[in-house]
Amino acid sequence: MEYAVEMKHITKAFSGVKAIDDVTFQVGKGEIHALIGENGAGKSTLMNVLSGTFSYHSYEGSVLVNGKEMKCSVPGDANQHGVVMVHQELALIPEISVAENVFLGHLPRNYTGVDWKKIYTDAKEVLGKLSLDVDVKTKVKYLSVGQQQLVEIAKAIMLGGKILILDEPTAPLTDRETDVLFRILNDLKKEGITIIFITHRLEEVFRLTDRVSVMRDGKMITTKPTSELTADTLVSYMIGREMKNMYPSDVTEKGELIFEIKNYSVEHPEYAGKKIVDNVSMKFYKGEIVGISGLLGAGRTELMMAVTGSYRKKGTGSIFLEGKEVVINNPKQAIRKGIGFVTEDRKGNGLILDQSLSFNISLASLDQIEKNHILSRKKETATAGRFLKELKIKAQGASVPAKSLSGGNQQKVVLAKWLAVDPVILILDEPTRGVDVGAKYEIYSIMKALAKEGVSIIMISSDLPEVIGMSDRVYVMSEGRVTGELEKSELSEETIMRYATDSARVREESTWVK
């Protein structure tokens, strides 16, 4: 096989700790190659070496691109060799046009200044290759996330990218947008472009890639053709042990009714007269894990944010806690009533990334670790230390910043923050998004353990296998309404999707008409 990328015996250390240790990684020309592993396995560090983020002076080993050694002194040097990385967090400027973003940092010029004609013409041409039919003069902020992802890829191609590194490119995409992206990646492959595809979603590995490399604990474990692997063998390579069942089988007992939402509605924040949550009623019991499923825009997150006083519009209707009607106007009141909310965006809303783990873990439970408005550093450190140990959070200690942790460990820190308040109700919004398989299992085990202790768990999730595997009961929402309530025995992907698209109601109504 002719290699586009050869990384030989790469070792990279931070403060004496090896993030990658003697790693050799080879990618064939014109292939789509998956790079997978648990959070903290070393994938990002390895790709930062390849993309030139780290100077060649800062690591051991050698990097060859198309047979020639590449030595990058500053970020951007790798682009000259055709290596471009598209990061998970899109690096676009919302307030400028699509075309300007495509040429960001290297605007072509002519004798009069910026060559706008070339910018618009070339941008239109490259977007046409990616089947993105938008006006190149449109501001990026008006594009969907899927369209913005394609603009990022167009930008990479315009930088001369012949080797594209895509870091979790499908994380923010809908299923339909993912289908479009995969078709485009296969088209790019036919044109001879090499793609390194980083993902946590194993089904994507089997659907898209030619070969797979697995990393674990900073080492390269194996590289094999995708056709020779199964999901089970991949998981065992990733976590170093065989996993028989993705979802813990612990049985929990349903207790008494603890939380009830009755005839609850929320006005749409942008469209007057439209409801984003429409007359919703739900019941939650102690020791039960209840899934809330539905398509994007169904109103699931908005419902729970409004109920906990954290949405920009107030809800109308009734909320009952242990049989008594309560009013919750803000998150502080929700916390004092024993309601925790692990938000969907851990980096934006769940953590203060530059602050320490002890600071983050204590954020929701300040009432318990202060006296006379003076914070007890001793209690704060002790609380953080306890949860680092109990949740097996991999970190150098409670004083390190949250941004230094892998995604899975960051998610555990968010969980720890809410466990510190001893919640009676814990709402989890997309609890395992962007988290590797091993960390997922650990988060599921924490959820089961809490349910066993009598905590009422409410899980919003777009991952249907997760909803089915973890839920005792499921509410399905569509366009702000509850369209179905399903018991464990009734759960299947087909049934949930029928209610999520509201086709179950349509079918029933057509039967009545007949």
TrEMBL record:
<keyword id="KW-0472">Membrane</keyword>
<dbReference type="InterPro" id="IPR003439">
    <property type="entry name" value="ABC_transporter-like_ATP-bd"/>
</dbReference>
<keyword id="KW-0547">Nucleotide-binding</keyword>
<feature type="domain" description="ABC transporter">
    <location>
        <begin position="261"/>
        <end position="504"/>
    </location>
</feature>
<dbReference type="GO" id="GO:0016887">
    <property type="term" value="F:ATP hydrolysis activity"/>
</dbReference>
<dbReference type="InterPro" id="IPR027417">
    <property type="entry name" value="P-loop_NTPase"/>
</dbReference>
<dbReference type="GO" id="GO:0005524">
    <property type="term" value="F:ATP binding"/>
</dbReference>
<dbReference type="GO" id="GO:0005886">
    <property type="term" value="C:plasma membrane"/>
</dbReference>
<protein>
    <submittedName>
        <fullName>Sugar ABC transporter ATP-binding protein</fullName>
    </submittedName>
</protein>
<keyword id="KW-0067">ATP-binding</keyword>
<keyword id="KW-0677">Repeat</keyword>
<dbReference type="InterPro" id="IPR003593">
    <property type="entry name" value="AAA+_ATPase"/>
</dbReference>
<keyword id="KW-0813">Transport</keyword>
<keyword id="KW-1278">Translocase</keyword>
<dbReference type="InterPro" id="IPR050107">
    <property type="entry name" value="ABC_carbohydrate_import_ATPase"/>
</dbReference>
<keyword id="KW-1003">Cell membrane</keyword>
<feature type="domain" description="ABC transporter">
    <location>
        <begin position="5"/>
        <end position="242"/>
    </location>
</feature>
<dbReference type="Pfam" id="PF00005">
    <property type="entry name" value="ABC_tran"/>
</dbReference>
<dbReference type="InterPro" id="IPR017871">
    <property type="entry name" value="ABC_transporter-like_CS"/>
</dbReference>
